[in-house]
Write a structure and sequence with these properties.
The chain is an alpha+beta fold and 102 residues long. The radius of gyration is 13 Å and the shape is globular.
Amino acid sequence: MHRIGRGGYMKLIGEHKAKKGLIRIEIEEEDGIARKVLITGDFFVYPEEAIFQLEKEMEGRPVSELEGIIEDFFSRRHDVETPYVNVEDFKLALKKALEGKK
């Protein structure tokens, strides 16, 4: 977990080591809104563009809603496969990033 920023802007970073992969979530947050979201790590996702779509769904939303957005995304997208990584792993990385807001 890292917190970088001043004023109403913060860059929040959280990492979670899953069964077979690291998930890193970076959030550029301003006044409670996720302005930019980047999800990276050493995990696999099929189709590859699914992570970019998840990032876009999270951007522009209140950080308090991001966990629900992750849950909703994976419950809707039955075509998305993340071997050895599950929705809880993404939520744990998010939680670690948001701990930097305190």
